[in-house]
From TrEMBL:
UniProtKB keywords: Disulfide bond, Glycosidase, Hydrolase, Signal
Annotated signal peptide: 1-17
Domain of life: Eukaryota
Protein's name according to its UniProt entry: Alpha-galactosidase
Subunit structure of this chain's protein: Homodimer.
Gene label: NAGA_0
Enzyme class: hydrolase
InterPro entries: Aldolase_TIM (IPR013785), GH (IPR017853), Glyco_hydro_27 (IPR002241), Glyco_hydro_b (IPR013780), Melibiase_C (IPR041233)
Keyword presence, Cell wall biogenesis/degradation: no
Alpha galactosidase C-terminal domain boundaries: 348-431
GO cellular component, one term: cytoplasm
Family affiliation: Belongs to the glycosyl hydrolase 27 family.
Length: 434
């Protein structure tokens, strides 16, 4: 990081998020990597190879089913009558503000193995025959936003040309293609250069007229200690975990890591900048529905980006319902933007996480609470609103469990709420200040 950037960050304080007007709540979308990897075999596997057809198929699914379903699910609820939606113009007035899965992002393996004669990035011509700008037009035409993967180093992790040495040209190329989101990996880069190079590429993005969400993996590639002040001043999201894999142990390992790090992490998250625990694998092969509820509850309580990697053409209705649960999404997207804290660790396997959320009653905020069981035996976890950080509301708190929709009644700060948790399952509550 240059002296002037360091000075600016120091002057403006520790919680300064990148102020490019983007990611005011955690981005939501869909990404190729975990489900489709680097499948380039469009001859034998045309439906699943990394290609413009795959991207268009997922954009179609998101546009035709997912946006509409989110609208109906929310719009049907009586209390939200009269509140305007900000997402889609024609949604009318019977909906509350909710974000949805908007970014359609191509990960590694979209590139040609060389740049073109002018030194510009180019896609694989066989799998992206229409070109990257046309793909962006298609995604935008479906009311969605367009994301592209690259790498800050000399090559991507799969060995395609990286950004190194071309920051300005590549930023301009992405803008010309209509990109709204860039996932920037950190393979094939000197560790010592991560801060300066991410800041330099960020400066090129900031110089563009097009606003582009800047998603980094800088802390993941850095052994630490991490300068989250600098990271949050540079990137809108930052991965600090290993790659999620399609199995339960992978989700648990990320949760264990966040449990260790949460005290140092949480202060750096907020509107404009978020910790990224990697993709949602709900709807793939590895998680049961109960385990899917765990991933969704944790990601929401952490204010994490909700970026799915699954096959939206073949997802079960039950998995889709977890991903589309408007109340859980509303926790994730809460505009206070406060990352949840670990409040209770009961034995090895039961945890209670909580974060303050809107609405307020007077000065009191509401709370969201996730109760999680990682173990193979059923368990119970008891807590009070006060323990979750909800102690101020004069009229108490209205409790609701968001997966079942069950109304838990009105409670006072010292009252006990008991979560009965089946094996490897979660419950997530709102405690709404009255
Ligand atoms: C790294 C990243 C993954 C994915 C692959 C692509 O492993 O962490 O999320 O982008 O590279 O090669």
């Amino acid at each position: 990081m240059s002296l002037s950037v360091s000075l600016l960050v120091a002057l403006l304080g520790p919680c300064l998020a990148l102020d490019n007007g983007l990611a005011r709540t955690p981005p939501m979308g869909w990404l190729t990597w975990e489900r489709f990897r680097c499948n380039m075999d469009c001859v034998n596997d045309p439906d699943n190879c990394i290609s413009e057809n795959l991207m268009k198929a997922m954009a179609d699914r998101l546009a035709d089913g997912w946006l509409r379903r989110a609208r109906i699910q929310v719009g049907d609820r009586g209390p939200w009558k009269g509140v305007r939606i900000s997402l889609v113009r024609c949604w009318g007035t019977k909906t509350r503000k909710i974000n949805s899965y908007l970014y359609v992002i191509v990960d590694d393996c979209w590139l040609n193995s060389t740049r073109d004669a002018e030194g510009r990035l180019q896609p694989d011509k066989d799998r992206f025959p229409g070109g990257m700008a046309a793909l962006g037009d298609y995604i935008h035409g479906r009311g969605l936003l367009y994301g592209i993967y690259e790498d800050i180093g000399s090559e991507t992790c799969a060995g395609y040309p990286g950004l190194q040495g071309h920051f300005q040209l590549d930023a301009q190329t992405f803008a010309e293609w209509g990109a709204d989101y860039l996932k920037i990996d950190g393979c094939n880069e000197r560790r010592a250069d991560l801060p300066e190079d991410h800041a330099a590429f960020g400066a090129e993005l900031a110089a563009l007229e097009r606003p582009i969400v800047y998603s980094c993996e800088w802390p993941f590639y850095e052994l630490g200690p991490h300068n989250y002040t600098a990271i949050a001043a540079t990137c809108n999201l930052w991965r600090n975990t290993h790659d999620v894999q399609d199995h339960w142990e992978s989700v648990v390992s990320i949760a264990r890591l966040y449990s260790l790090l949460e005290a140092e992490q949480f202060q750096f998250a907020g509107p404009g900048g978020w910790f990224d625990p990697d993709m949602l694998i709900i709807g793939d092969f590895g998680l049961t529905l109960a385990q899917s509820r765990v991933q969704m509850a944790l990601w929401a309580i952490w204010a994490a980006p909700l970026i799915m990697s699954n096959d939206l053409r073949a997802i079960s209705a039950e998995a889709a319902a977890i991903l589309q649960n408007a109340d859980v999404i509303a926790v994730d997207q809460d505009e206070l933007g406060v990352m949840g804290r670990l409040k209770v660790q009961q034995g090895d396997d039961a945890q209670l996480w909580a974060r303050p959320v809107l609405p307020r009653a007077g000065d009191a905020t509401s709370c969201a609470v996730a109760a999680v069981n990682y173990g193979d035996s059923a368990t119970e976890l008891s807590f009070t609103p006060a323990l979750a950080g909800c102690a101020e509301a004069a009229g108490g708190y209205r409790v609701r469990e968001l997966y079942s929709g069950a109304d838990g009644g009105l409670v006072q700060p010292g009252d006990t709420i008991t979560a009965s948790l089946p094996p490897t399952d979660a419950l997530i509550y709102t405690l709404t200040a009255q």
